[in-house]
Amino acid sequence: MIPGNVPSGDPAEETTSEFQEAFIFNAHQILIEGYRRLEDPASYHGSEEDEITENLVDAMMEHIGSRPDSWIKMYQVREQAPVRTPGRTGKRCPKVDLELVAFSGVGIVRFSWEAKRLVRNNSVGIYLGTEGLGCFLSGQYARDCSFGGMLGYAQTSREAPWITIIGGRIPIEPAPRAFPSSTCISRHDRLSPLPRITIYHTILQFVTGAA
User: Fold this and answer.
1) Which of 44, 58, 106, 211 is at a distance of 20 to 30 A from 11, taking alpha carbons?
2) Which of 135, 202, 126, 203 is nearest to 169 (CA)?
3) What pLDDT digit, counting tens, does each position of 120-154 carry?
4) If residue 136 lies in a helix (H) or strand (E), which one and from where to where?
């Protein structure tokens, strides 16, 4: 799963920055392998966001459980994971759509994804709005973290047109070569004391020809 030019993901062998690089890469590989395990992605072309996310999480966990590699056993996937936010506790606590957690020697590391359906003309506005990308920019998600992810569930066209539309609204750049081809990156300053954040945008296709 880890290409030769990417660190192993074992915190006993890598520096913190190298482990972070490997963790982000592995998170996306687990995501894509989970997507590939969905029997018929096109059958979700009319499904609600929560249904897609639920099945995607199950498929990602199945992939983790099927692998013999010892390093992958430190990963766990969560759906609707509570996010501790100042002033909001209990039922008022926000929940991130999908979270991948690594229990490692450097502590608990999380990669958070917010998911949105891409299905109509105003979908990208919602995807980039206060309930989408804005959750990261405001510090509601990944408050103490320098990375996070957006998932676009493409239900009316293939991935490339949606990436083009997103790129027309915010500056984006290609993800590193080993990442999925449907992933791009945007970088954002946030209000102090929040750290600058890199967002990995991945578009998953749920229309005819998605397999």
Assistant:
1) 58
2) 126
3) 989 999 999 999 999 999 999 999 999 999 999 99
4) helix 134-137
